[in-house]
Specification:
The protein is built from 7 helices and 6 strands. By secondary structure, it is an alpha/beta fold. Strand 2, helix 5 and strand 3 form a beta-alpha-beta unit.
């Protein structure tokens, strides 16, 4: 074999090496992974919603009424204020469902607002905080829901959703209105309003 033929053989890289050493593969793979991550993040962002739970304690007793009896004028006035608050202005129509525990006091507290918004009361028996929370968050994802319950259920809901333990509430103290924002991603936020 001549020297020029030998030189020619040594200068040309073998075909095997060129095919199996793709120089741009790591760059293309990184770019593909980046685009995939952006697509997943965008999808999660688009599907992320916030469910708003407005939690109100109903009258358990009032100067005019026993715990199991009809709510007196004292709690009826509070029910009317609640109806005015969520049925006028920017808040009108934002409440999409109203959940109440099985007591007459809870139904009476929510009835004026339900009538103004044309909603049916969703009654959850046995004052089950877990059932209330589960139904409200699964059936009304991304919407605003009113929950009217007794002090123990209100305390349990706030503990479950926000990790906040309320001090025991006296029977005649009804000033608290709790607005809990429950995002799909992240932790819940709490806003407490007073009458």
């Amino acid at each position: 074999m001549s020297r020029s033929a030998q030189l020619h053989v040594h200068m040309e890289a073998p075909a095997f090496t060129r095919r199996h050493r793709p120089f741009l593969a790591p760059i293309w793979l990184s770019l593909l992974l980046f685009v995939g991550a952006v697509a997943v993040a965008f999808t999660l962002y688009q599907s992320a919603t916030t469910t708003t739970l407005v939690i109100v304690r109903h009258a358990e007793s009032a100067p005019e009424a026993a715990t199991t009896g009809p709510a007196g004028a004292w709690s009826q006035e509070r029910a009317q204020r609640l109806a005015q608050l969520f049925s006028q202005g920017d808040l009108s129509g934002r409440i999409r469902a109203i959940y109440v525990t099985g007591t007459q006091a809870a139904r009476q507290m929510a009835a004026p607002l339900a009538a103004r918004l044309g909603l049916r009361l969703e009654v959850v028996q046995d004052a089950d905080a877990d059932a209330l929370e589960s139904r409200a968050l699964s059936e009304h994802r991304g919407e605003a829901v009113l929950i009217v319950a007794n002090a123990s259920v209100v305390s349990q809901l706030l503990d479950d959703l926000c990790g906040i333990k309320l001090a025991p509430m006296p029977a005649d103290e009804l000033s608290g209105l709790f607005v809990v924002s429950v995002p799909t991603l992240g932790s819940a936020g709490l806003l407490e309003l007073h009458d």
